[in-house]
UniProtKB/TrEMBL annotation:
InterPro entries: AB_hydrolase_fold. This is Alpha/beta hydrolase. SUPFAM superfamilies: alpha/beta-Hydrolases.
Length: 191
């Protein structure tokens, strides 16, 4: 299993969000950093996973199992949502099995090693938010349109949810996606 640490931001212990980054897109990168800040501002306890060595698909899945249902899982009485990016979305089938709502940023929908993610994404309920860009080769807009999940599809955005060489557009995308995540988290109630 890949080694990881969990960085904790205290908030309401009854409302917990777990952030699962990509392999190269860490929890310090813009989408996850601002998501972390926004949900913390809303009072959520935030747990952000950080890789301490480079994960493989198999080691990442083992780490996600440990964080979501194993020894590092939050209290079972807490409302728990998952926010995952790229490699982190390998946790999608496990989250569905555990009944955990989730935000799935640039999920790996077209990778042969992640067919379970593709199958789970096609059948998501309204307790999930899928976010991807039309220029991302790992995104499949037709597939996600068939699920019951909320979908934010960003025109011309790549796997980082950015449009090359367009800072103003990228800031607008960041704002749109973080606002969608805040709305999603708010749909599970605030105190």
């Amino acid at each position: 299993m890949s080694a990881y640490t969990l960085h904790l931001t205290d908030g309401d212990p009854a409302r917990v969000v777990t952030i699962l980054p990509g392999s190269g897109y860490t929890a310090m990168a813009p989408l996850l950093w601002y998501t972390r800040a926004a949900l913390s501002d809303l009072g959520w306890s935030v747990r952000a996973l950080e890789w301490t060595d480079k994960p493989t698909f198999d080691s990442a899945r083992a780490a996600f199992a440990q964080v979501l249902e194993g020894a590092d899982a939050p209290d079972e009485d807490a409302l728990h949502i998952v926010v995952a990016k790229s490699l982190g979305t390998l946790a999608l089938p496990l989250a569905v099995r555990l009944g955990l709502p989730g935000v799935w940023l640039t999920p790996v929908l077209t990778n042969e090693g992640a067919l379970d993610v593709r199958e789970a994404a096609a059948d998501l309920s309204e307790d999930h938010l899928l976010v991807g860009g039309t220029a991302d080769p790992l995104w499949d807009g037709d597939l996600v349109d068939g699920s019951d999940a909320d979908v934010v599809e960003v025109e011309n955005a790549d796997h980082c949810l950015e449009v090359p060489n367009d800072r103003a557009e990228n800031l607008a995308i960041l704002d749109e996606v973080v606002a969608a995540i805040e709305e999603f988290a708010g749909s599970f109630g605030e105190e």
